[in-house]
Fold this sequence. Notes:
Oligomer: single chain
Number of domains: 3
Helix content: 10-25%
Largest sheet: 13 strands, mixed
Shape: globular
Amino acid sequence: xxxxxxxxxxxxxxxxxxxxxxxxxxxxxxxxxxxxxxxxxxxxxxxxxxxxxxxxxxxxxxxxxxxxxxxxxxxxxxxxxxxxxxxxxxxxxxxxxxxxxxxxxxxxxxxxxxxxxxxxxxxxxxxxxxxxxxxxxxxxxxxxxxxxxxxxxxxxxxxxxxxxxxxxxxxxxxxxxxxxxxxxxxxxxxxxxxxxxxxxxxxxxxxxxxxxxxxxxxxxxxxxxxxxxxxxxxxxxxxxxxxxxxxxxxxxxxxxxxxxxxxxxxxxxxxxxxxxxxxxxxxxxxxxxxxxxxxxxxxxxxxxxxxxxxxxxxxxxxxxxxxxxxxxxxxxxxxxxxxxxxxxxxxxxxxxxxxxxxxxxxxxxxxxxxxxxxxxxxxxxxxxxxxxxxxxxxxxxxxxxxxxxxxxxxxxxxxxxxx
Length: 419
């Protein structure tokens, strides 16, 4: 079981040479240290005895699936335990501050390095788990947390007429996020001017919410933005990437357990929406309200450029969630039950990817559903225990009607009107 762990130390564990680091009271002194090369990291994958250091880890990249079509991805977190029997990872032997340093965890499989998590270290604690066995316990947060640390004052208003993808880029530019660490869709929503004041992550999420798009940090640390048509245009979202079920002869991959929900938690039949300080518009579904009672959503600070878009936003969100449905909420996979089948899936899937899940309860016709992956959790314990949990959200099964699209913009083609 081969994992790679790299940490952005300036000096490296137990290495006496010191590099110049800006804003550090010691390592930042001129004529004392050397200029560090770009992207310097220290490989902590194995100890001096050649033993793999990774003993256990838990990765959590979840989401909040709200009413209608709204999904907000959480900051990803890592909890990692590394073997440290020689003590070279003890803070007493590392001549620099550790919290806030970058780190990456990857899995090597079939000759390829697959990133599992990239982010910054929040905590690094040494611990004894036996007379002669020491570990360090590490927690880290992904790139969304890093961006969430930027809080800016107001600039002069700018960017009136930005499309949502351009606004995402404007916000990332303002905090100096590298252009090579972005994967940004163009977007469709037109936005009002912004002062770029406040928390940068809040601004990114407000933009994604106005678009009804998706924003997350992928395992390689790339900030990813999918506009609301991304689920219709991206091949991994339009084509089933794996089918999970009990029929191995049909190519289905077995799952350990399937979580389901059948309640009103994601129902919305009244949407009140508006621009910041503007008119509030209401979209309601009278049939749904009469049958299920009022389930309201209010969003009155949308950064949209005009009220026409606000009305369309409210209608779209209301239409996507006015009826309660039996939902598949999560599926648990035992990765080592079939490594050849599961590794390409658990290492290759990301948020927004489409999979199919089949359940076959007694006395019920096989219930097969297509879903999006809306959260990913990995849990590993040495030597060979690994479970992956995918949070699930209902996949769109209709094709949208999109103006100016040569195929989906054709009249009388059966496509559903999209916002």
